[in-house]
Amino acid sequence: MNEPARKARVAGFALFTLFLTAVFVALGVWQLQRRTAKHELIAALTERLAAPPTALPPSAQWPALNPARDEFRRVSFTATYAALPDAMVYSSGSAVRKDASGPGTWAFLPARLPSGETVAIDAGFVENTMQDRDVEDRAVKKLVTGQPMAFTGYLRFPEAPSWLTPAENRDRRLWFVRDHLGIASALGWGAVAPFYIDLEQPAPANGIPRPGPLEVNLKDDHLQYAVTWFTLAGAVLIAFAVWARGRRQS
Fold first, then answer.
1. What are the sequence ranges of the domains in the chain?
2. Residue 197's closest CA among 99, 95, 124, 91?
3. Which of 13, 31, 39, 124 has its CA 20 to 30 Å from the CA of residue 201?
4. Where are the transmembrane segments (predicted)?
5. How many CB atoms within 10 Å of residue 71?
6. Closest residue by Cα to residue 120 from 75, 165, 158, 175
7. Buried b (16+ CB within 10 A) or exposed e, 28-55
8. What is the pLDDT at residue 32?
9. Dist. CA 187–CA 85, nearest whole Å
């Protein structure tokens, strides 16, 4: 190979090496940024989950609520479960409930506030591995007494389905994403609050459905991923240096 062609090949390979290095370094920096954001989220959630409950915001304030600021806020209020169809939402396991790490369903019921508005309540976990409608019916039947109850729980906002999320089964009143707005529309609950309540207490005497406190349990592997990307960037540079040295000696 003549000298101009050899130099052109080395230059081309050098540009490709610099491109790969830049990509790997950018991915490493991105993982460090995600790590910082994750730590801020964990700190915020830890603070909200540990805070004493406050009164449920009045309906006039509901439009101003948003997930970034209000998700997982602990609230207390009084409401009465409505005699309307409930929904069960499939769960393969919860990232914030260690006592609900396996498959089952969440029991979603509407409840009326003393002021007349309706709030959707995730009343707790049912170990319903087959998503059996009868199992859910037996679990929630005793909750609807027509009597007001004192609730404590967490503000949560509806989940958006992904393209992999199965469609709901309305005959079984079974959903695969916690979209309480869609559930309310399908089951005739009427207008509901833009959030739902992830119930902490009270729990039924037999513990079914099983409400409970939430815990922060978010994965934080971003530093490991960042080190991997930076290592790949260094490996690419070293490989190019070894190759270029060999070309000069040949």
1. 3-46+219-249, 73-201
2. 124
3. 39
4. 12-30, 180-197, 223-244
5. 18
6. 158
7. beebbebbeebeeeeeebeebbeeebee
8. 93
9. 6
